[in-house]
Amino acid sequence: MGCLMCGPKLAACGLVLSSWGVIMLAMLGIFFTTHSATLIEDVPLTNEDMPKDTNPERVYAAYNNVGYNCFIAAAIYVAVGLFSCCQMRLNKQKEYLVR
């Protein structure tokens, strides 16, 4: 039998939270990489990053950086979801073997 680390309720909670985290962070990553204007307050910009001309490359680079970070966090949530799914399976196997 595999390495059982958490119970069935904790595994189910981890699966629900990770699926919501993947959806939320994937959407945020998409919106950041498409340079959504409503998310400008969440982009770490300084006064030097704000363009004085019409070429906003620094701002777009900051948007893309935050978007990539969101995609990385979503991938971590996928890994947590897979771990929780494996834990749920191990708990079901343990329950089946006990009966």
Structure, described:
The chain is mostly helical. Helix content is 69%, strand content 0%.
Distance between the termini: 16 Å
What is the mean predicted local confidence, pLDDT? 89
Q: Helicity range of the residues? A: 55-70%
Cα radius of gyration in angstroms? 20 Å
What is the number of independent domains? 1
Give the overall form. rod-shaped
User: Helical region count?
Assistant: 2
Would you report the number of β strands? 0
Strand content: under 5%
**What are the segments in which pLDDT stays under 50 over at least 5 consecutive residues?**
none
Q: Sheet with the most strands? A: none
Computed structural class? mainly alpha
Write down the secondary-structure element order. HH
Brief overview:
This protein has helices spanning 8-33, 57-98. The chain is an all-alpha fold and 99 residues long.
